[in-house]
Amino acid sequence: xxxxYLINDITMPGGLSRVTINLVDEFSSLNSxxxxxxxxxxxxFDKVEHSNIDYLDMPALHGLNTLGKLGWYxxxxxxxxxxVNEHDYQLVIAVGTAMTLFASFCRFRSARLxxxxxxxxxxxxxxRKVFKRWRYPKLERLICxxxxxxxxxxxxxxxxxxxxxxxxxxxxxxxEYSHNKKVLFVGRYNDMKGVDYLxxxxxxxxxxxxxxxxxxYGEGERKAWLLEQIQKMNLSHVVEVNEPTENISVEYQKSGxxxxxxxxxxxxMVLLEAQAHGLPVVSFDCETGPSEIIREGEDGYLIPAYDxxxxxxxxxxxxNDGDKRSLLSENAFTNRQRFSKASIIxxxxxxxxxxx
Length: 356
Fold this sequence. Notes:
Number of strands: 13
GO molecular function: glycosyltransferase activity
Mean pLDDT: 94
Distance between the termini: 8 Å
Strand content: 15-25%
Keywords: Transferase
InterPro entries: Glyco_trans_1 (IPR001296)
CATH topology of the largest domain: Rossmann fold
Shape: globular
Low-confidence stretches: none
Protein name: Glycosyltransferase WfaO
Pfam families: Glycos_transf_1
Number of domains: 2
Structural class: alpha/beta
Strand order of the largest sheet: 3-2-1-4-5-6-7
Helix content: 25-40%
């Protein structure tokens, strides 16, 4: 059976691309009856060289205005239909909301169409939600990341919804918990990731945690603002702001606690990665994902969104309690297998088998 993951641009940094590449990599290493490939419409950055990844060489979508994007998708339709039909794919899985909406207008000769969501349903505005209610019933099946989204939203207007979370490549990493006095944040410097909350929390915490430092890795439109706030609040001596690194595993292993301050998520990969390295985590209980990853009080803490005072209090208590951090770390190492490659690939194979 031939399966195709369809994505806008697999070269763009972020979870959407990383998850798609991970799936193609893993399936290509299996000796199974499924031939799994990916098709990227465009490549804004250097192409990912992989025998199971193809490109249509469309112009980069990102940066176009609304009219330009509509024209881009109109041009893409014939390209995608021709590619899918000529290569005789039996199943097309559109990755992400925009590509799933687009694919719902395509007409394939024999391929079935599924969609794969990668953000919380409530991340989108009213207009996008209306389009989803209109177009998603055209899908044969929708894959979403969390049970919360399935039960609260998609089950209300779709008949065939499955939940498959992302997996982490670090589920079997050889790591030991360090008691380094370092709090780690990994994510884009933008409003969705709650950088304003992040600064407030650091300001509340640092005076009560002698010797502790905050290390941030990311990029984004609020970086200049973030640096300005750190300077204004006299936090420069305890905060280190970095660009993304390709060797993030090293930074997880150097840290003692991981924090997530997002307003919303889909299924935050950084929480999986942090727990795979045995880090205790403190996160807002935002929609969606954290509550399906963190086991409250067992391997981390969920803070009611968006109570920065309570978040800071919990972080202070954890930073000053080495025994508690050791216990949470031990549980994180145990729980990480829930999101191992093998566990998640089995869920995908279970869905594929329904078509045989």
